[in-house]
Amino acid sequence: AAFEWTEECEQALQHLKKALFEPPVLSRPNDDEVLYLYLAVASEAVNAALICETTEGQKLVYFTSKALHGPE
């Protein structure tokens, strides 16, 4: 079966490129908002995202990522 690049494929690619190349707008949490810390840990990297829960949904407060080299 041959692969067919459709308009839906193109739209998905453009959406992905936009998400990857435009950094998210970080928000400042209010004192009464609940904060969540999400961690992703692998042998190659450690990632952390601080998220605040609002009535509009989750918003990114801070994000960091560290590539690991050798026995770090």
TrEMBL record:
This is Reverse transcriptase/retrotransposon-derived protein RNase H-like domain-containing protein. The lineage of its organism: Eukaryota, Viridiplantae, Streptophyta, Embryophyta, Tracheophyta. Gene3D superfamilies: 3.30.70.270. Residues 5-72 form the Reverse transcriptase/retrotransposon-derived protein RNase H-like domain. InterPro entries: DNA/RNA_pol_sf, Rev_trsase/Diguanyl_cyclase, RT_RNaseH_2.
